[in-house]
Write a structure and sequence with these properties.
Order of helices and strands: HHHEEEEEEEEEEEHHEH
Low-confidence stretches: 1-30
Structural class: alpha+beta
Length: about 240
Protein backbone atom coordinates (compact mmCIF):
# COMPACT_ATOMS: atom_id res chain seq x y z
CA UNK A 1 0.00 0.00 0.00
CA UNK A 2 2.79 2.40 0.86
CA UNK A 3 4.53 1.76 -2.44
CA UNK A 4 1.25 2.23 -4.36
CA UNK A 5 0.58 5.50 -2.51
CA UNK A 6 4.08 6.78 -3.37
CA UNK A 7 3.57 5.91 -7.03
CA UNK A 8 0.26 7.77 -7.08
CA UNK A 9 1.85 10.84 -5.51
CA UNK A 10 4.73 10.74 -7.98
CA UNK A 11 2.27 10.41 -10.86
CA UNK A 12 0.25 13.38 -9.61
CA UNK A 13 3.39 15.51 -9.32
CA UNK A 14 4.44 14.58 -12.85
CA UNK A 15 0.97 15.45 -14.15
CA UNK A 16 0.99 18.87 -12.48
CA UNK A 17 4.48 19.56 -13.81
CA UNK A 18 3.29 18.65 -17.30
CA UNK A 19 0.33 21.01 -17.06
CA UNK A 20 2.53 23.92 -15.96
CA UNK A 21 5.01 23.20 -18.74
CA UNK A 22 2.27 23.14 -21.37
CA UNK A 23 0.88 26.43 -20.11
CA UNK A 24 4.27 28.17 -20.13
CA UNK A 25 4.41 28.62 -16.37
CA UNK A 26 7.47 28.38 -14.15
CA UNK A 27 10.89 29.96 -14.49
CA UNK A 28 12.14 27.23 -16.81
CA UNK A 29 8.95 26.69 -18.78
CA UNK A 30 9.60 25.45 -22.28
CA UNK A 31 13.30 26.28 -22.20
CA UNK A 32 14.43 22.64 -22.44
CA UNK A 33 12.54 22.22 -25.70
CA UNK A 34 13.82 25.39 -27.38
CA UNK A 35 16.38 24.75 -30.14
CA UNK A 36 19.68 26.64 -30.09
CA UNK A 37 20.86 26.06 -33.67
CA UNK A 38 19.08 29.05 -35.27
CA UNK A 39 20.44 32.56 -35.99
CA UNK A 40 19.53 33.69 -32.46
CA UNK A 41 21.51 30.88 -30.82
CA UNK A 42 20.67 30.43 -27.13
CA UNK A 43 18.77 33.72 -26.77
CA UNK A 44 15.23 32.29 -27.16
CA UNK A 45 15.99 29.41 -24.77
CA UNK A 46 17.33 31.68 -22.02
CA UNK A 47 14.49 34.17 -22.60
CA UNK A 48 11.96 31.36 -22.21
CA UNK A 49 13.51 30.38 -18.90
CA UNK A 50 13.32 33.78 -17.19
CA UNK A 51 11.21 36.42 -18.94
CA UNK A 52 7.70 34.93 -18.64
CA UNK A 53 8.03 34.76 -14.84
CA UNK A 54 9.62 38.22 -14.61
CA UNK A 55 6.76 39.77 -16.55
CA UNK A 56 4.22 37.78 -14.53
CA UNK A 57 5.71 39.15 -11.30
CA UNK A 58 5.61 42.68 -12.75
CA UNK A 59 1.93 42.29 -13.53
CA UNK A 60 1.22 40.96 -10.03
CA UNK A 61 3.09 43.90 -8.48
CA UNK A 62 1.21 46.47 -10.56
CA UNK A 63 -2.15 44.94 -9.67
CA UNK A 64 -1.47 44.55 -5.95
CA UNK A 65 -3.16 47.04 -3.64
CA UNK A 66 -0.89 46.16 -0.71
CA UNK A 67 2.40 48.06 -0.31
CA UNK A 68 3.81 45.18 1.73
CA UNK A 69 2.86 42.67 -0.96
CA UNK A 70 4.32 44.87 -3.71
CA UNK A 71 7.60 45.08 -1.83
CA UNK A 72 7.73 41.30 -1.42
CA UNK A 73 7.02 40.75 -5.12
CA UNK A 74 9.61 43.36 -6.08
CA UNK A 75 12.30 41.47 -4.15
CA UNK A 76 11.49 38.25 -6.04
CA UNK A 77 11.40 40.20 -9.29
CA UNK A 78 14.78 41.84 -8.69
CA UNK A 79 16.39 38.51 -7.75
CA UNK A 80 15.09 36.88 -10.93
CA UNK A 81 16.16 39.86 -13.05
CA UNK A 82 19.68 39.49 -11.70
CA UNK A 83 19.73 35.82 -12.72
CA UNK A 84 18.31 36.72 -16.15
CA UNK A 85 20.93 39.41 -16.68
CA UNK A 86 23.73 37.04 -15.74
CA UNK A 87 22.41 34.23 -17.91
CA UNK A 88 21.73 36.27 -21.06
CA UNK A 89 25.12 38.00 -20.88
CA UNK A 90 26.79 34.59 -20.75
CA UNK A 91 25.16 33.55 -24.03
CA UNK A 92 27.66 33.34 -26.94
CA UNK A 93 27.41 36.37 -29.21
CA UNK A 94 25.10 36.11 -32.21
CA UNK A 95 26.38 39.28 -33.86
CA UNK A 96 27.36 38.53 -37.44
CA UNK A 97 24.93 35.62 -37.74
CA UNK A 98 22.90 35.77 -40.95
CA UNK A 99 19.15 35.66 -41.51
CA UNK A 100 18.18 34.84 -45.11
CA UNK A 101 16.45 37.80 -46.78
CA UNK A 102 14.03 37.19 -49.64
CA UNK A 103 11.63 39.25 -51.77
CA UNK A 104 8.18 38.09 -52.85
CA UNK A 105 7.49 37.72 -56.56
CA UNK A 106 6.33 40.94 -58.19
CA UNK A 107 8.36 43.32 -55.99
CA UNK A 108 11.21 44.94 -57.92
CA UNK A 109 13.77 44.90 -55.12
CA UNK A 110 16.93 42.81 -54.83
CA UNK A 111 18.70 42.20 -51.50
CA UNK A 112 22.44 42.76 -51.54
CA UNK A 113 23.08 39.88 -49.17
CA UNK A 114 21.25 38.46 -46.18
CA UNK A 115 20.45 40.27 -42.97
CA UNK A 116 23.35 40.24 -40.51
CA UNK A 117 22.69 40.59 -36.81
CA UNK A 118 24.36 43.78 -35.60
CA UNK A 119 22.95 44.35 -32.11
CA UNK A 120 21.26 42.58 -29.21
CA UNK A 121 19.48 44.84 -26.72
CA UNK A 122 18.88 43.45 -23.24
CA UNK A 123 16.52 45.02 -20.71
CA UNK A 124 15.22 43.90 -17.32
CA UNK A 125 12.18 42.25 -18.86
CA UNK A 126 12.82 41.83 -22.58
CA UNK A 127 15.41 41.16 -25.28
CA UNK A 128 15.45 42.29 -28.90
CA UNK A 129 17.62 41.73 -31.95
CA UNK A 130 18.54 44.13 -34.74
CA UNK A 131 19.74 42.96 -38.15
CA UNK A 132 20.87 45.00 -41.16
CA UNK A 133 21.27 44.60 -44.90
CA UNK A 134 20.99 46.69 -48.06
CA UNK A 135 18.60 46.70 -51.01
CA UNK A 136 18.73 47.82 -54.64
CA UNK A 137 15.74 48.61 -56.88
CA UNK A 138 15.54 46.60 -60.09
CA UNK A 139 12.96 48.95 -61.66
CA UNK A 140 11.38 52.36 -61.06
CA UNK A 141 9.04 52.01 -58.07
CA UNK A 142 6.33 54.57 -57.15
CA UNK A 143 6.81 56.26 -53.79
CA UNK A 144 3.41 55.05 -52.61
CA UNK A 145 4.27 51.37 -53.16
CA UNK A 146 6.72 51.41 -50.28
CA UNK A 147 3.85 52.10 -47.86
CA UNK A 148 2.57 48.61 -48.65
CA UNK A 149 5.83 46.69 -48.22
CA UNK A 150 6.36 44.77 -44.99
CA UNK A 151 8.99 42.47 -43.52
CA UNK A 152 7.50 39.12 -42.53
CA UNK A 153 9.59 36.67 -40.48
CA UNK A 154 9.02 32.92 -40.90
CA UNK A 155 10.28 29.93 -38.97
CA UNK A 156 11.58 26.80 -40.70
CA UNK A 157 8.16 25.17 -40.41
CA UNK A 158 6.68 27.95 -42.54
CA UNK A 159 4.91 29.71 -39.67
CA UNK A 160 4.79 33.52 -39.73
CA UNK A 161 6.43 34.97 -36.61
CA UNK A 162 6.03 38.72 -37.06
CA UNK A 163 4.90 41.45 -39.43
CA UNK A 164 7.16 44.49 -39.27
CA UNK A 165 5.59 47.76 -40.39
CA UNK A 166 8.75 49.87 -40.50
CA UNK A 167 10.31 51.39 -43.59
CA UNK A 168 11.67 48.71 -45.90
CA UNK A 169 13.36 51.19 -48.24
CA UNK A 170 14.60 54.70 -47.40
CA UNK A 171 15.26 56.49 -50.67
CA UNK A 172 17.51 59.51 -51.12
CA UNK A 173 16.77 62.70 -53.05
CA UNK A 174 19.33 61.83 -55.71
CA UNK A 175 17.49 58.57 -56.40
CA UNK A 176 14.07 60.19 -56.71
CA UNK A 177 12.20 61.39 -59.80
CA UNK A 178 9.69 63.72 -58.21
CA UNK A 179 7.89 64.45 -61.47
CA UNK A 180 7.17 60.76 -61.96
CA UNK A 181 6.81 60.12 -58.20
CA UNK A 182 9.22 57.18 -58.28
CA UNK A 183 12.50 56.01 -56.90
CA UNK A 184 14.64 55.13 -59.87
CA UNK A 185 16.00 51.75 -60.89
CA UNK A 186 19.40 51.13 -59.31
CA UNK A 187 18.63 53.14 -56.17
CA UNK A 188 20.13 51.63 -53.02
CA UNK A 189 19.19 51.77 -49.37
CA UNK A 190 20.36 50.30 -46.10
CA UNK A 191 17.55 48.50 -44.31
CA UNK A 192 16.93 47.12 -40.83
CA UNK A 193 14.86 44.40 -39.20
CA UNK A 194 13.95 44.40 -35.48
CA UNK A 195 12.27 41.84 -33.24
CA UNK A 196 11.52 44.42 -30.54
CA UNK A 197 8.13 45.62 -31.74
CA UNK A 198 5.90 44.67 -30.10
CA UNK A 199 7.62 43.83 -26.83
CA UNK A 200 7.89 40.17 -26.00
CA UNK A 201 8.21 38.73 -29.52
CA UNK A 202 11.05 36.38 -28.64
CA UNK A 203 10.05 35.17 -25.17
CA UNK A 204 6.34 34.85 -25.99
CA UNK A 205 7.19 32.46 -28.85
CA UNK A 206 10.69 31.18 -28.13
CA UNK A 207 10.23 27.91 -30.03
CA UNK A 208 9.33 29.86 -33.17
CA UNK A 209 12.09 32.45 -32.98
CA UNK A 210 14.62 29.75 -32.19
CA UNK A 211 13.77 28.29 -35.60
CA UNK A 212 13.83 31.61 -37.50
CA UNK A 213 14.47 30.67 -41.14
CA UNK A 214 14.03 33.83 -43.21
CA UNK A 215 12.63 37.33 -43.52
CA UNK A 216 10.60 38.12 -46.64
CA UNK A 217 9.61 41.47 -48.14
CA UNK A 218 5.90 41.17 -48.93
CA UNK A 219 3.15 43.43 -50.26
CA UNK A 220 0.42 43.79 -47.64
CA UNK A 221 -2.25 43.82 -50.35
CA UNK A 222 -1.48 40.24 -51.39
CA UNK A 223 -3.36 37.20 -50.15
CA UNK A 224 -0.10 35.59 -48.98
CA UNK A 225 0.60 38.54 -46.69
CA UNK A 226 -2.94 38.53 -45.30
CA UNK A 227 -2.59 34.85 -44.44
CA UNK A 228 0.73 35.52 -42.68
CA UNK A 229 -0.81 38.44 -40.78
CA UNK A 230 -3.73 36.31 -39.60
CA UNK A 231 -1.31 33.63 -38.46
CA UNK A 232 0.64 36.17 -36.39
CA UNK A 233 -2.57 37.54 -34.85
CA UNK A 234 -3.76 34.04 -33.94
CA UNK A 235 -0.43 33.19 -32.31
CA UNK A 236 -0.52 36.42 -30.25
CA UNK A 237 -4.07 35.70 -29.09
CA UNK A 238 -3.09 32.17 -28.07
CA UNK A 239 -0.10 33.47 -26.08
CA UNK A 240 -2.23 35.79 -23.91
Amino acid sequence: MKQTRNLLVAGAIALVAGVFSACGGGSGAGSNNVPTDGPFGEIPSVAAKYLPEINQLQEQRWKSSSAENREEIAKKEDALKAKWDEAIKAVPSVEGNEIPLEVSEGIDIRPEGNFKITKVTISDDDVSVKAESSLVLTANIPFTNFNDYRYVAFDRDGNALSVTCGNVFMGKDKDADYKANVYKEGAKSNTMFYTSSPKGNIWKNPEGWAKLAKVVIMDQKTEAFKQAEEQVKAAKAAAK
